[in-house]
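Mods, move this if it's the wrong board.
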Amino acid sequence: MIKLTIDQDLREKLCNLQQRLEICDEFGRVLGYFMPAVDPSMYEGVDAPASEEELRRIEKEDGRPLQEILRDLEQNG
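Not the wrong board. Structure tokens:
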């Protein structure tokens, strides 16, 4: 991975981002995307929508093959 150090002006423009940013040149061509680092404190005190017991149960369940799911979607779509 290449590391890029930015100046203070650009840092101030990027510091409050909460979502992905598309970076374009002066002609509108997409050069890439910037994804801001996640602040773990955003998730403090947030509970998972499922209990640990439910997650363990789901983990043990057998799933369906992707091809089967796609076939069902094509037939019912």
